[in-house]
Amino acid sequence: MEKMPFQPNTLERATTMIRTANLDMRNTETVVTTSDWKAGLPVMAASTFTLRDLRLDDAPSLLAMLTTEEVARFISPPPTSVEGFEAFIMWAQNERQAGNYACFAVVPKGMTTAVGIFQVRSLEKGFTTAEWGFAIGSQFWGTGMFAEGARMVVDFAIDVIGVNRLEARAAVANGRGNGALRKIGAVQEGVLRRSFIRNGVHHDQVLWGIVADDWRLQRLSQEPKAVSIN
Ligand SMILES: CC(C)(COP(=O)(O)OP(=O)(O)OC[C@H]1O[C@@H](n2cnc3c(N)ncnc32)[C@H](O)[C@@H]1OP(=O)(O)O)[C@@H](O)C(=O)NCCC(=O)NCCS
């Protein structure tokens, strides 16, 4: 999502909440086995990484990974400090509890903190239509982490949250972001003219859509076929 719903002006309020928050949050990794995602996101293991809820101790690694020029060029300005990322993480937890938003941290095997995020936010009451976005530290680009994580997050949005239509917006000039969406099966639906401003420049954005029925069919066709032995 080019426009991250978190706005830095929520920093002050969230900082107060961080001070009063239960510090257990820093190191707990709760495996949620129910579909009550508002109470906590599940830990989803992939071949080379894990997706899990954000934790406050992800703030320094997210600052390092998501504020480089190549990552931040086509997304809304990320926070510029550890405190700013902590405020974002607190905001994300609150929005999840309110049922408006889910943000997964991407944690490579052998590491304990996040190198990227996948976020999904409701665009209307009830989460039927949602928008998603993602950003991963550039040293992990081209590793397959995006595609595998994206499929898990779309499955989660559709199967667990109940999203029927998932939109993404990517600046036309963001070749990699558009290539990433195309390759996982999102459909290019149109161009939103001058819909995104970054560093004083107005960008056109490609609108990408995934609808639940198409996604289920695509998933079915990719599942290994049962082999019958006579
Ligand atoms: C978007 C992002 C998460 C994708 O992860 P990634 O690891 O780079 O993605 P992948 O390498 O798996 O896929 C990108 C695809 O785009 C293709 N691509 C790269 N540059 C391209 C370009 N200029 N034009 C078209 N396609 C391009 C790649 O070849 C690749 O396809 P392939 O695997 O079939 O060869 C990552 O690039 C990122 O964090 N970017 C910065 C944040 C951002 O722009 N987020 C998107 C907002 S919608």
CATH homologous superfamily - what is it?
Gcn5-related N-acetyltransferase (GNAT)
Per CATH, the class reads Alpha Beta
- Unreliable spans: 11-34
Mean pLDDT over all positions: 88
Q: Indicate the CATH topology.
A: Aminopeptidase
Which word captures the global form? globular
Which small compounds were modeled alongside the protein? coenzyme A
Look at the helices and sheets and give the structural class: alpha+beta
Distance between the termini: 50 Å
Can you tell me the number of structural domains?
1
- Portion in beta strands: 25-35%
Count of helical segments?
7
Largest sheet: 8 strands, mixed
- CATH architectural label: 3-Layer(aba) Sandwich
Helix content: 25-40%
Give, in spatial order, the strands making up the sheet with the most strands: 1-2-3-4-5-6-8-7
Order of helices and strands: HEEHHHEEEHEHEEH
DSSP E strands, number: 8
Polypeptide structure, described:
It is a single chain. The protein has 230 residues and is α+β, with helices and mostly antiparallel strands. The chain has a single domain, classed as 3-Layer(aba) Sandwich (Aminopeptidase). 33% of the residues lie in helices and 26% in strands. The protein contains 7 helices and 8 strands. A hairpin with a 3-residue loop joins strand 1 (44-45) and strand 2 (49-53). Helix 1 (11-20) packs across helix 4 and helix 2 packs across helix 4 (82-97). The relative contact order is 0.14. The chain binds coenzyme A. Coenzyme A is lined by residues 2, 71, 74-75, 133-136, 141-142, 146-147, 168, 170, 174-177, 179-180, 183.
